[in-house]
């Protein structure tokens, strides 16, 4: 129920914010007597595409805490030696990466995992699972944290939102162009006639089809940023420590995946892995083997 509520809240926020922006810009309907008003349509799609992506970004920390059950560590009153070590590692890595120290948290999950999120590099959250904290040694833990700090320092959350926003824009735009063309030429809508149910059904179907195809572009960028974060982790914590941490994560891929679906792109591992296949094009992460191979080619200690 919580996830449904968060989904509805996010979509309501998108509708309100996008509606206000379109009102301020004076953008009216993109349907006219002569057909589609291309400029209005493009602005409409751009506003909804980008607003949808950036509302999710601005809500990302709050939603991550709610969906994963992350409990923040009070830097002034850590409750255990493990929390003290965690805070010290994040503080040191943040200073080395030249970013403001993120909030630090722990979420309940037996499977080793971690994530970073936040709308900018100086207002981020880094969290690790309780299982990771229990089973990884300090070098491996530091490497995982360095990977997440790398995401934050690289601005990956913002750039992924930009990529998603642009993709959303073009998916909406071309779905409506194609929907209008099919409605006119296949279903015989007359010039000046308002779009009927066929147009809206076709547009919804094309939104889904184009969205699935376009998500391959977003997933490619997601995999690319994982390589960059691994490289940052190797530079901050050592190449062998980063490789060791990834191999430890690989050993746990058969454990039940407890990471919420909406958080998988932000986590250090996606869970069960796939080799080369069509489905691999839609994976948020490269395989551990691919990531280790890339790290081994790095020229760093």
TrEMBL record:
Gene Ontology MF annotations: metalloendopeptidase activity; zinc ion binding
Keywords: Cell membrane, Hydrolase, Membrane, Metal-binding, Metalloprotease, Protease, Stress response, Transmembrane, Transmembrane helix, Zinc
Cofactor: Zn(2+)
Membrane topology: Multi-pass membrane protein
GO terms, biological process: proteolysis
Transmembrane segments: 36-58, 157-177, 197-221
Cofactor, how bound (note): Binds 1 zinc ion per subunit.
Active site residues per record: 148
Domain Peptidase M48, residue spans: 87-297
EC number in record: 3.4.24.-
Pfam hit, one: Peptidase_M48
UniProt entry tagged with the keyword Transmembrane helix: yes
Localization (cell): Cell membrane
GO cellular component terms listed in the entry, alphabetical order: plasma membrane
Superkingdom of this protein's organism: Bacteria
Main location: membrane
Residue positions binding Zn(2+): 147, 151, 226
Protein family membership: Belongs to the peptidase M48B family.
UniProt protein name: Protease HtpX
Annotated source species: Acinetobacter apis
